[in-house]
Amino acid sequence: MLGSLRFRLPALFLLGCVLSGLIATLIAIRFFQDYARTRAIAELRSESVGIVQLYARQAGVQEVPVDKLQAAIGGDQIFYVPIAPGVKLFTGPLRELPPSAIQPANLVSGRPATVNLTVNGKKYIAVAQPLKIIDQLFGAMVVAKPVSQLRSRWVTLVERLTLALGGGVIIAGLLGVYLSRRITDPLLRLSTAADEVAAGNYDVELPEPHGGDEIAHLTGRFRDMASRLAESEQLSRNFLMSVSHELRTPLTAIRGHVAALREGVFEDPEAREASLGVIGEEALRLERLVGDVLDLAKLDAHRFTVLQEEVDMEQLCERAYTAFGEEARRRGIEYRRDFHASPVIMTDGDRVLQIISNLLSNAFRWTPEGGRVELELSASNGSISVAVADTGPGITSEERDRIFRPFWSRDGGGTGLGLAIANELAMALGGRIELRTEPGQGSRFELLLPGPS
Q1: How far is CA 306 from the centre of its chain?
Q2: What is the gyration radius of the CA atoms in the chain, in angstroms?
Q3: pTM recorded for the entire structure
């Protein structure tokens, strides 16, 4: 519990708020103390000036009553520091301080001086105003405030700031708990969903993303991942079923013909030769299937080796074209070639032939009887183009994103490796395959390879 995000997030959030509040409180108290002291000194200066002016107006007329001086400054304390002893300036008792309390040398300039006093164990902050009559310095009037009075002001401030800090901490704690739940609840649900996915259950319930924050982004990517994993597993199952079927069919034919030959069913030499021919064709079919699987594994592992040799593209395309001539004749498909160039390039001829053969095989598979298949060769702008066009059913926009994926087949038949291998081989040779298609309008696969340098 203590190590979970649900606890740590609000705890760290609350701790940050408390530390920030304490620092702000200390700074506020310090500023307030400085302000209160400055304000108090300004008030004391003003009061001391007023007292001296009051005395100056009445000097020589009458002695100034102390109670009148006290009324002029309100609740602050007033003291007198005699510098010219024996001169009585006031009527009534007025507390006197020794000259050492204010250091009279500071008053020679005629300006007030700020001093700290301690009278009878009580601390004061005070301003000493020089008292002159006809340029004669008689003493100094000292107006003082108790330091405790200033302290009471910022103590009140501390109490109010403490209440504000406590309320802020409560609100921050509630907000932190709310935010932590809002963050951790989707994460916990994602964690549970991840456990389900790890167990092989890809149909998991995920929280609905709200807004465009990181949690929503993570949820969306997790949903895409689960969907891709489910699709990948389905494709793997389809592949295993397809490969099992593709392997079982030739193996069954081979086993049947071998058994018949052993039992002497075919006594006619021509019949035996035909049976051996079937065995050979089925063996080649098995070899192609195994070769496709191995090629895909090598391409995925980046262990595929590309040869560099001079390749006459016109001869290579003619060879690929001829290989499907018999199938075109048998199914009544209009089969055409259109070669506009005779480029010779440095590439791996066998792999280029494999790509073109895979594209032609895919075209013949989806072209209905009586349809049309075209093979085109051209060269322009430093690249070689080999295009295979058909009049099949075309490909939808959804299928276009999947058609080059391994093990995916539109009708669930075949291994789903032909186009995937062709696409990977094209990229390994430094080229690419482009597709133009419309549903019901056929498809056009174009292999683009670097031209001669």
Answers
A1: 39
A2: 50
A3: 0.47
